[in-house]
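Revision sheet: structure tokens.
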Amino acid sequence: GWTGVTQSTPGGTATGPAPGTYEQGIEDYKVLKTKCPATGTVGGTAYAFCNGQWWSYDTPATIAGKMTYAKNQGLGGAFFWETSGDTANGELITAMANGLK
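Predicted:
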């Protein structure tokens, strides 16, 4: 995520990384889904603009699209880098598992 952003669409400028829970510019999906809900999609990834901050992140819908791509390409599967940023009920990992069925 970025801060000091003045436009909601991708391609703008920023003054620096947005504040994150653990590291600047990085935030968990479970936080962003309510703090700064997605307002659009570009390149298969959701983005959001809230209070001068611009974030890009995966949602269950964008993950579903990526799993469709993986299946259509005949890929052997997908992986999740780290799951602690997912919701308590596993929205993202569930989208991945359902998308690979």
